[in-house]
Each structure stands twice: as C-alpha cells, then as structure tokens.
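Blinded run. Sample ID left blank on purpose so nobody reads anything into the name before looking at the predicted structure. Input follows.
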Amino acid sequence: MIEGGKHPADGGKHTGGDGAVEDTVVATADDRERRFAAYRGSVRTLSGARPPETIAERLARLTADAPGVYGLDDWTDFYGNDDGIVGELERRTADALGTGAAVFFPTGTMAQQVALRCWAGRTGSTTVAGHPLSHLEVHERDAYAVVSGLRMVHPTGAPRLPTAGEIYDLQEPFGTLALELPLRDAGYVLPSWEELTSAVAAARDLDAVVHFDGARLWQCAPHFGRELPEIAALADSVYVSFYKSLGGIAGAALAGTEEFVEEARAWRHRYGGQLFQQWPTALAALVGLEQELPRLPRYVAQAKVVARALREGLAEAGVPWFRIHPEEPHTHEFQVWLPYPPEVLNEAGTRQAEETRTTLFGRWFEPASAGPPGVAMTEVTVASPALEWTAEEIRTAVGDFVRRIDG
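Blinded prediction complete.
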C-alpha cells in the first residue's frame, strides 16, 4: 500500500518531476486504490510519464531498458567506486553539463546542503541569497539553517527569479546566490537568457558565487535557446536530479570543477551519503540520460500545444474562471487552476478515467498559501504519452471532464 497519497500518480506534493505537490490532504486507502486502478486502466493519459508501477514492474522495466546503456554483466558498485556504474554515471553527467566533474548523491536535498556548505567555507560568508519559493526554503525543512548554520536573504518575493537590480539592491552582503531553474512553486518559470546572465553578473560584481538548483535544468535548454553546457557554465556549481524529468528511481548530482567536486565528496561522506550500493539508482539514471534527455525538447514543444488546448477547452466548456500558468509554458511542466474544491475535481477525474479510460490530470489540491479557499491547482507534466494527443482531442476530453464536475 502506498502511504499518505504521496505516489506520483496521486499528485501529493513532493519534489518529483510528474506534476505532483507536497502537503496534500491525505486520501483514504479506498480512494487511492480506486484512483490508481482507474489510472492504470486508462489507455490515454495527458499528464505524467506513466501510471503507478509495482516493484516487479519497475524492476522489469529497468532491466529491459538497460541494454546498450550499461553492461549488466559488470559488478555492482561498492560505496560508489569510481571504476563502476556510479563512476560512469558521474562522468556522463559531467559530459552532459560540460563541467570538469560531477559527484553522485542519494538525494537532492543532501546535494544542495553540501554545495552551500562548501561555498560558505570558501567565501567566508554564511549568507545565501535565494527565493522564498525555492526548494531550499519550501521543501527542505530549513536544512540550510538547522544543519548547515546558514541564513537566507531574499532579493525578491515576486513569483519569478530575481533581477540584477534586485540583487544589487540587497542591503547586506551574501556569499552565494542560489537560483532555482526553473522556479517550480511559481509555476516552473524561467527568466530570459539576458535576465539570467545579468543576475549572474550582478552576483559576480558583489564577489558572490552562483549555485544553480537545477533539479530540472534538463528541461530548460529550449527556453533559453542554449545547450546545457552553456547554461551550466554560468554557475560555480550545479545540482541536477535524475528522477525529475529523466524518470529515474532517485538520486542527484553536483557538478562543477574537479576541486569543488572533490570537496563535495568529503562532505557527502560526512552527511551520510556514501551508501554501500547504489547501482539500481545509477542504472535508472543512465537510462534517463540516454533515453529521456533527448526527448525533452519535444515535450517542451508539446507542452505549449497542450496548454493552449486546455485553455481553449476550458473556455469552450464555460468554466467561470481558470488559469493556465504560465500561459505559454517555459518548460514541459505548468500549472492549471480551477474554481472548484479539489475533492470535486479529483472525483470528476476518477470517474472520467473509469468510464472513458482517459486520464487528463493528476491529483488536484488546495495550495497551502498560494490561493483563496475553493480554488484548486494541479501540475501538468507533458511527457511521452502526451505526444499522442492532438489539440482537438484535448479540447474534447476537457469538455467531458468539465461535464463531470457538476454531474
């Protein structure tokens, strides 16, 4: 049994790359089982990469995807040894990002804390400039302060990345500028390339280093019109996730210079991140780099089609108020807001899946602080299943979904 409604298909708010979000109302076991059964029974899905899987199904898929990615006749890793699968993952990650080196971490939260800890030691400053909606502030239980003894200042509270002017206007010095690309809780939003480079230049002018929370950096290249190495080169360190956008099991990496990465390895051990064996996670990450990463530009392009069709379908269905945010997605993920309680929308979605074998959305929820009561939001992730949809098919399915809200 999956606990607490936090499975990706459940849409409970977590840090995954499937459009789900943390601190959602816990559904009953019967509700979850019914929803999972409806989702698994659907022949068409619009949001998300795949329905929930059993352990046996996930292992079988991992084994089926592995040939040509990494030799299964090789030995398992031991403490992430460099000459095994973890070392290979680190080298391929550094190659993909164009950095001197990369180091594997079991979680992104640990990777972030190690990066900030390293930079605090090197700059002599325990102050980090970041966004109040960033993963560091919202989803890591204040680890930067409680574990690492750091403090955060905010150049802006607007639901976007800070501008160069706002960085210059900070009233106190800081040692590290942390930028989340894209800013997930604001709607997976990104600055323009000019805005990003100006913000980085401002931090440099103030003698600060730059860290990218790039958990989803993989999906940013189409928006910026730049390749990943050119984007990563703006920062002194980059964190990337292997399960957000890439469909891995878990895991993350820190990338940067060889000197920085060697220091990060030492802190990884101190933080308890040097696990005995990590080969399943590393193998799934290699599959993601090989198979999903090249597909992301298609997902980003299709997200614009999906967002426009959803907007047109909701308008044609006479929904009194709705919001697609951003109106034109910056990545392959975006938000949809509707003026109904989440339980009503979840029931409509489950019934649509049961009766038509079509799933449009993941779990709807009422955000803790981002909207008025009675308004629900879901996150749409455009992945391989969404490529099969035409705009007309989306509009038709949206109309069917809306009819079930009051029915």
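Unblinding after everyone has recorded impressions. Confidence is low (pLDDT under 50) at residues 1-25.
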